[in-house]
From TrEMBL:
Residues 1-61 form the HTH tetR-type domain. PANTHER family: HTH-TYPE TRANSCRIPTIONAL REGULATOR RUTR, TRANSCRIPTIONAL REGULATORY PROTEIN. Keywords: DNA-binding. Residues 24-43 bind DNA. One of its GO terms (molecular function) is DNA-binding transcription factor activity. This is TetR/AcrR family transcriptional regulator.
Length: 192
C-alpha cells in the first residue's frame, strides 16, 4: 500500500473513531504511518483528504444499506411483510455499523459549513431517493418516474434517516419493522 492509500485508510479510521471535526492531521498521519507532509502532497489539505475518505465510507455504507433493502426473491411474503422484514434488516445493519450512519449525518453537517460539499450531498440524496423508489416499486431505477422519486423515494429516505437517528439515540427503545409498518398504517388512516 502506497502513502496515498495509507492516508485514505488512516483518514477513514479517524473519521469513524473521532469524527470530522476532531480528526487532526497528526491523527491521520499516525494512523497511516506516514509523515504529516504527505497529506499536503497527496491531497492538498486535511479537508480534501477527509472528504475523499468520507465519500469512500459513504459508498461502502450505501452498499451495505442497499443489500439490507433489497428483498430476497425467494420469499412468498406479502408486500407488507416484505416491507417489515426490509426494515428489520435495515435496523440490524444500522446496529451493526452505527459509525457509518453517524458519518453520513456528519456529511450533512459539514455540507452546511463547506459549500463545496453541498453538490455532493445533493447528488447523493437524489440518488438515494431514486434508488429507494426503484427498490420499493421493484423496477429498474431507469424505470422510476420522477413523481415516485419525489414522493415515495423522498418519504422512504426521510423515514430511514429519522428512524435510524431514533434508534441510535435511544437503543433501549429501538423501533422494529413492525413498529414502522404500524406507524405508517396509523398515518394512512389520518391522511386517508
Amino acid at each position: 500500500m502506497g502513502n496515498r492509500e495509507a492516508l485514505l485508510a488512516g483518514a477513514r479510521t479517524c473519521l469513524l473513531d473521532k469524527g470530522f471535526d476532531r480528526t487532526t492531521v497528526r491523527d491521520i498521519a499516525t494512523a497511516a504511518g506516514v509523515s504529516m507532509a504527505a497529506i499536503g502532497y497527496h491531497f492538498g489539505s486535511r479537508e480534501n483528504l477527509l472528504f475523499q475518505a468520507l465519500f469512500s465510507i459513504l459508498d461502502e455504507w450505501g452498499d451495505l444499506s442497499g443489500r439490507a433493502l433489497v428483498p430476497d426473491g425467494a420469499s412468498d411474503a406479502s408486500p407488507a411483510e416484505a416491507y417489515e422484514r426490509m426494515w428489520d434488516d435495515l435496523l440490524a445493519q444500522a446496529r451493526a455499523h452505527p459509525k457509518m450512519w453517524l458519518v453520513s449525518m456528519e456529511l450533512f453537517m459539514q455540507a452546511q459549513r463547506q459549500p463545496d460539499l453541498l453538490p455532493h450531498l445533493t447528488d447523493g440524496i437524489r440518488q438515494g431517493r431514486s434508488g429507494m423508489a426503484a427498490i420499493l416499486e421493484s423496477v429498474p431505477e431507469s424505470d422510476v418516474s420522477e413523481r415516485s422519486v419525489r414522493t415515495l423515494g423522498m418519504v422512504q429516505v426521510a423515514l430511514m434517516s429519522g428512524v435510524v437517528i431514533q434508534m441510535l439515540s435511544d437503543p433501549e427503545n429501538a423501533p422494529t419493522g413492525a413498529d414502522v409498518v404500524a406507524g405508517l398504517r396509523a398515518l394512512a388512516r389520518i391522511t386517508g
